[in-house]
Amino acid sequence: MLENNIKPKLALSKKIRRGFYIVGGGIGTLLVGLYGFVGVRLAIASRTHPNPEAIMLLGGGKGREQFTVEFAKAHPSLDILASGVRFPEGLEVFRDAGIPEKRLYSNIYAVDTVGNFAHTVEELQKRNVHHVYLITSDYHMSRAVAVATLIFGSRGITFTPVTIVTNEPPETWSWFRIARDSSRAILWVFTGRTGANFTINLKLKR
Question: How far apart are CA 195 and CA 189, in angstroms?
Fold first, then answer.
């Protein structure tokens, strides 16, 4: 009797494991395909547009705006896309430094790293930009690169990181933050949603 009860349970356990293997294999294949696709698009963008065509600042960190002001002065031909900066203080830093407003575009609606990219990629495509300088703080750059690789890379936009050296400690649980935001970026690639708790409509103000 006991042996008869064990056999169905073993069979069910095998089916469950087989199901996990199938699902896991499917997800693995999907991710390999996605990163392969992204890698090809980044390589093409880097080859066809070797020089950055715009400056992108990720707001939210101390001193990022002032650093970008000096960087923009050294690259006067490039427009500046400031995403997630403090409003209006963050933008006033550029105006007070004499940066012409026609060079400055801002996305004040992004509230996190994934949003910085998901809510600006269409604006870059509209402007036919395929390569940007990506400016953020040293403790934030690894996560920014992970997200940019997926979101920008999937749209054929490459980037050159420009790191702001700070005295800030590394992000706590940085590996978890990178994994979390990478997962959200993958979700955006396939669904157009970032996985945030609420939907933000993209409205870029000039």
Answer: 11
Is residue 170 a contact partner of residue 139, using CB atoms and an 8 Å limit? yes
Helix 64-74 vs helix 89-96: crossing angle, to nearest 10:
30
Gap between the Cα atoms of 96 and 93, Å rounded: 5
Write out pLDDT tens, residues 102-123.
999 888 778 899 999 998 999 9
Residue 143 has what pLDDT?
Answer: 95
Q: What is the pLDDT of residues 53-90, one digit of tens each?
A: 999 999 877 789 999 999 999 999 999 999 988 767 77
List pLDDT tens digits, range 137-153: 999 999 999 999 999 99
Q: Is 97 exposed, middle or buried (0-12, 13-18, 19+ CB in 10 A)?
A: middle
Distance CA 44, CA 158 (A): 9
How many Å is the maximal CA-CA distance in the chain?
A: 87
Residue with tokens 């690639």: 189
Percentages helix, strand, coil for the chain (3-state, rounded to 5) are 55, 15, 30
Report the relative pairing of strands 158-164 and 131-137 from DSSP bridges: parallel
Instruction: Answer yes or no: are the C-beta atoms of 91 and 122 closer than 8 Å.
Output: no
Q: How far apart are CA 42 and CA 91, in angstroms?
A: 30
